[in-house]
UniProtKB/TrEMBL annotation:
Pfam families: Acetyltransf_1. PANTHER family: AMINOALKYLPHOSPHONATE N-ACETYLTRANSFERASE-RELATED-RELATED. It comes from the Bacteria. InterPro entries: Acyl_CoA_acyltransferase, Bact_Acetyltransf, GNAT_dom. PROSITE patterns: GNAT. This is GNAT family N-acetyltransferase. Residues 5-152 form the N-acetyltransferase domain. Keywords: Acyltransferase, Transferase.
Length: 155
């Protein structure tokens, strides 16, 4: 387990590294994977937060969260393979959940690849529940799973 990571807001200079990590950890096997324009399109939704954690010479993790009304949507979230299983993802997700609560979000929604058992297990271990299978959600080729976590009562 790592000590609490130093989370910082992403800069324009992080764009390529974020796109490469997205390609390797989320978009593997999909056409056009790793293009910053996909990340950028996601990041232009209302009030996004883009955070990163630096590693040795590279970004070890990033997350992009958008807020609308009283919901938060974790648009992209990845940890470099070599940095996994040390608590980095848990620490970052906790940071993002704290910010979502402070912003007044009732819940956080996220999608994961259906074939990514590690991501699905990670979210489940952090209190996220699978709601639906999303056929061909990734580039029209790979099914996704929609998950959510309620931060406060729905009522």
């Amino acid at each position: 387990m790592l000590a609490a990571p130093d989370v910082r807001f992403a800069t324009a200079g992080d764009a390529v590294a974020i796109a490469e990590l997205s390609r390797d950890a989320i978009e593997y096997g999909l056409p056009g994977a790793g293009r910053w324009r996909g990340c950028a399109a996601r990041s232009h939704r209302p009030t996004p937060i883009i955070i990163v954690v630096d590693g040795a010479g590279a970004i070890d993790a990033f997350g992009i969260m958008a807020y609308t009304d009283d919901d938060a949507h974790l648009l992209l979230f990845a940890v470099r393979a070599a940095a996994r299983r040390r608590g980095l993802g848990s620490a970052m997700l906790g940071w993002l959940e704290t910010v979502a609560r402070a912003a007044g979000a009732s819940r956080i929604r996220v999608e994961a690849r259906r074939d990514n058992a590690g991501a699905r297990s990670f979210y489940s271990e952090h209190g996220y529940h699978e709601l639906a299978i999303l056929p061909r959600n990734y580039s029209g080729l790979v099914d996704g799973v929609r998950l959510e976590k309620w931060l406060r009562d729905a009522a």
